[in-house]
Specification:
The structure is a single chain. Helix content is 71%, strand content 4%. It has 312 residues and is mainly α. The chain folds into two domains: 4-205, Substrate Binding Domain Of Dnak, Chain:A, Domain 2, CATH 1.20.1270; 236-310, no CATH class. Strands 1-2 form a two-stranded antiparallel ribbon. A two-stranded antiparallel sheet has the order 3-4. Strands 5-6 form a two-stranded antiparallel sheet. Helix 3 (96-116) runs antiparallel to helix 4 and helix 5 (156-173) packs across helix 6 (193-227). InterPro entries: Bact_secretion_toxin, LXG_dom. In the N-terminal section; belongs to the LXG family. It comes from Listeria booriae. Residues 1-215 form the LXG domain. This is LXG domain-containing protein.
Amino acid sequence: MSLNVFLGEIDAQSESMVASYHDMIEAMEGLMRAVNEFAFDRELQGKTYDSAKQYFAATYRPLAQGMICLCEELIRQNQAFPQKFRADVATTDVIEHEVRDQIRQLDTQIQDIEKLSNNVVGMALITPIFVDLKQKLQEKLEALYQFDAETATSFDRAMDLTANIVQGLAEIDSDKAFQAKTGTFHMMGLNMTWRSALQKQWTAREEAIAKLAKENETARLIKAAEDGPLPVTPEGNVAGFVTKDGKLDGKATYDNAKWQQAHVLAGMKNAIFLIDMITPIFDIYRWRTGLDPITKEPLSEFEQSTAAGFTV
């Protein structure tokens, strides 16, 4: 089977698919709003409504979240595919059998030139040109197969999301949740492993969005500082600000502040180590709170128990 990539068709298909994925995301966001409105509607009371609220929040909400994650992943892949192909393989269509035909033609031409070079002066100088052309075509073919191998696994995350979404839909479609005798919804008997998998993906998405927002805000503040007036500092006191060509270098100043923070933290840790040698005050803090006194990070049970031992 021949490997062929037609960039024009791929670009058109990608644009169409990305648009449909955006429409799906909007629909799923609407579904999440509807579920939330239903779940928090105080006028709808009773066992049936209460159980239905819990059921819809526990099933349809994570399914909608999973669909949003899936669509966003497919948007990324559809946008990345043509860009990566142009960067790694070629900026034009690549048809495998045509490339192989060109390589074979060059092989024949190289052989003919080598035969003529014995009788025609200067023909030997042409051979390297054809050899170089052949090598470039071979490299293009190798890049095509390498690209195909790499993209074969690029949709693994999308496939995992799809599998869990399908499982969730199957559980909902089984009608096992509604109990006709009691007129209520129950989660007992439902396989909900798909929900935890989708919620994990959603949490990772939310964390990535928060991280990006923080990075964008940092970049905005740095840019605003660079474009604004240079802070007034006492003569002879750098005060941590870094200038370049008479203007504040926001990025360098930010990096310098982070470096200073790391060294201050290291100094505090050294001070705590010395204090720890003569007083149990920090061990008492570790024991009672379960946190590191400087970083505020949670301690393991062993570390907390060890700290308790030093307070005796």
